[in-house]
Design brief:
alpha/beta, Chemotaxis Receptor Methyltransferase Cher, domain 1, Rossmann fold, seven-stranded mixed sheet, three-stranded antiparallel sheet, 40% helix
Amino acid sequence: MESLAYRPINREEFGRFKAWIGERAGINLSEHKHALVMGRLACRLRHHRLATYGDYFELLQRREGASEIQIAVDLLTTNETHFFREARHFELLQQRVIAAHQGPRPLRVWSAACSSGEEPFSIAMTLAAGLGEKPWEIVASDISTRMLERARTGHYAMARSKSIPREHLAAYCLRGTGSQEGTFLVQEKLRNRIEFLQVNLNETLPALGDFDAIFLRNVMIYFDMATKREVVSRIVRHLRPGGYLFIGHSESLNGVTDEVKSEVVALYRKAPR
């Protein structure tokens, strides 16, 4: 079958997608992201045999394009991640959160932008190692249904295991054999402790309960200041008094909120009662 050629995205088309994803997901695409938008959405132009990005945008506006909207959101919001990214955070999770947890209630952690699952599974390994048989729960959320589907499997290429501490890899992961050679699977006992949910941080949040720690890492870099304030305000409401908020090392809450105070770089705490 002859392939259909499509034109590169122009400034006007890019502006329409920029405004659209900003309204839907709070993401502020900078002007140099033309290539990213074009590359991420090219597969959908090919799929629908469309000639321009403007044609695809019009498809998204039509009622029959409703199922396509989630696909486009998924493509434009997917971010790179890996196991135990910013490893110091997992040391602090052990030292500040796990070590201080007392009482019979489960320790609860929210991975608020979990992508393909590496972050919540890193948290799960840390909690399992630190708490033993004590109860704990993780909520892992993302705007992308495609990433959530991948995350729920707990199945990854072996190359992605390099950043997992060796003792955790041995204790909580299974090496693939036969047709699954070259992959590994996070053990079912950890997968079953994580609830994966689709959540748009730019909208009213569902009833998630309260958390001892929330990870909101490497996502605010895509928000403008007004959106950062709104998102952080929503999230902090779900943080227990004395709870911790982890953000990316390249991020800051200066001017964003005074509801949590800096403890060390990229770690904030809500005042205890």
